[in-house]
Amino acid sequence: MRINNYVAPDNLAEAYLVLNEHNSNTVLGGCTYLRLTSKNIDTAIDLSRLGLRYIEETADAVEIGALATYRDIEVSGILQSLFSGVLPQSVMVIVGVQFRNLATVGATVYSRYGFSDLNTALLALNPEVVLYHAGRIPMALFLEQGASKDILEKVIIPKADLRASFKYLRNSSGDYAILNVAVARSRDEWKIVVGARPFRAMIAAEASKCLSGSRLQKEDIERAAKTTADELEFGTNMRSSREYRQAVCEVLVQRAIQEVIS
Ligand SMILES: Cc1cc2nc3c(=O)[nH]c(=O)nc-3n(C[C@H](O)[C@H](O)[C@H](O)COP(=O)(O)OP(=O)(O)OC[C@H]3O[C@@H](n4cnc5c(N)ncnc54)[C@H](O)[C@@H]3O)c2cc1C
User: What CATH number does residue 123 fall under?
Assistant: First the structure.
């Protein structure tokens, strides 16, 4: 990529202003993806002076700043002890430690990558995203509609008495997942999320609802897994066919539910 100018603003208002001054102005995360592009960037905006690299626990939530890296998530004592550790589990196999020291939460969530492991695990935890211009919105809505030329400031996850599980299937270590699944249970309310379909992570609303009202017997779990595979859309790419993904979905959802119950 080619960068004509570089700025490191002192506040988000200035960063947002610069971002919207020119069509090709670009926010920098860890640059793991940007460096693979041949983009012609007029002004690159470095957010590293804004204090956005943090993972903090408040009385009722966990807040993850946009510049927190995958490695920060992986080694965070807060995230290892909350939500059954699904967030560290979702990133700890991605590429390697050097890579995870660079890739950031803000870039991953904002870019709404279909293959993302982190976005699938996050979505099961009912989070909200905070954008500088658009404000605070549920992550599920943000993943659907996105935002143009905005800056993701942080992700807020409400604390809940919750058990969760994250599962994935890869052709080989270091590759993108063929499919990933996160399941969370808070009291009697279940949430089943499937990503890398290869489309972006989505809640299986029908299946989650039918599991919430069930007795969690073997046939209830099988029905929820089948409903998930039926209600979501799957696609074919170089990693897997649509049919294979659909079959894998049923298996991973069953395993994730079993893990939450046990
Ligand atoms: C080789 C490789 C393998 C990968 N494998 C996996 C995998 O197996 N599983 C997986 O889940 N992910 C994988 N990823 C994706 C990775 O997890 C990150 O999501 C991705 O690399 C972006 O991280 P970054 O911080 O480097 O973003 P950058 O490259 O810096 O930025 C990416 C985009 O996000 C924008 N951006 C950055 N920060 C913000 C912000 N705060 N607000 C708004 N926009 C912003 C940038 O302008 C840019 O358009 C892989 C990536 C690579 C390069």
Answer: 3.30.465.10
Ligand 1 pocket test, pick from 35, 47, 108, 123 with the greatest ligand atom count within 8 Å of Cβ, gives: 108
Q: Is the model's pLDDT at 13 over the cut of 90?
A: yes
CA distance linking residue 9 with residue 132, whole number of Å: 14
pTM passes above 0.90? yes
Domain count, the chain: 3
Binding site membership of 50 for ligand 1 (Cβ less than 6 Å): no
Alpha-carbon torsion (9, 150, 192, 175), positive or negative: negative
Asked if 232 contacts 202 with a C-beta cutoff of 8 angstroms, the reply is yes
Let me know if residue 198 belongs to a domain.
yes
Q: Is 130 in the pocket of ligand 1 (CB under 6 A)?
A: no
